[in-house]
Write a structure and sequence with these properties.
Elements lengths: L1 H24 L12 H11 L6 E6 L5 E6 L2 E4 L2 E6 L4 H8 L2 E8 L4 E12 L3 H14 L7 E12 L9 E3 L4 H18 L4
Antiparallel strand pairs: 1-2, 1-5, 3-4, 4-7, 5-6, 6-7, 7-8
Helix pairs in contact: 1-5
């Protein structure tokens, strides 16, 4: 009897968490895709950023003064977007004051416009900086102007296309706590169904 009750409680918990998860993810984006972890964020980055020549990097000072600038030296690495800094002025000052940033990736001919939000680090003489120098050298024939790189760890992806889903958050990582709760619920359900446990 106790095992049956445990099974019911476990299954109910799983169902509630699934409903909660669906509610958090919301509606699908313009491509019918929903998301919920770093792997999916990485997939968005890998699928869309290589299709553009430039991106728009939006930053804000500590006092809230905004700035947006076009960036053309771009690399990706999993859930990170790496941007080369050759001539950043207000952008760099803003990032030193406030590490939060947003990147707009848009190709209207291909029918997509996405906004990537995350936190940044400014890196010099690191592996990312060296790889960016090689990319810039290949692209422009000179990399001496490249001072460092801005590494953006993406935490959220938004749909920026016109339409009813404009502004819809379509990808973000669930917290570790959320994942632990799901695993515990599944374990409880399994233990109730298996007499040997």
């Amino acid at each position: 009897m106790k095992k049956s009750i445990a099974a019911v409680i476990g299954l109910s918990a799983v169902l509630c968490l699934v409903i909660f998860s669906v509610g958090c993810v919301g509606n699908a984006d313009q491509n019918g895709v929903t998301a919920g972890d770093e792997t999916v964020i990485s997939q968005y980055i890998a699928d869309y950023i290589p299709q553009v020549e430039t991106v728009q990097l939006a930053t804000s000072s500590a006092s809230g003064v905004p700035n947006v600038a076009t960036m053309s030296t771009i690399m990706t690495d999993g859930n990170r977007i790496i941007i080369g800094n050759g001539y950043m002025d207000k952008t760099l000052k803003n990032l030193q004051e406030n590490p939060r940033a947003a990147v707009l990736v848009q190709n209207t001919d291909e029918g997509f416009s996405l906004q990537f939000k995350g936190t940044t680090e400014i890196k010099t003489d690191t592996e990312e900086h060296i790889l960016m120098k090689e990319l810039v050298e290949e692209k422009f024939g000179d990399s001496e102007f490249l001072k460092n790189v801005v590494v953006i760890t993406v935490t959220e992806v938004y749909n920026s296309m016109l339409g009813e889903n404009a502004g819809q958050r379509i990808a973000w990582p669930h917290s570790s706590f959320f994942r632990i709760i799901i695993r515990l619920a599944v374990c409880i359900a399994d233990s109730g169904q298996n007499p040997g446990l």
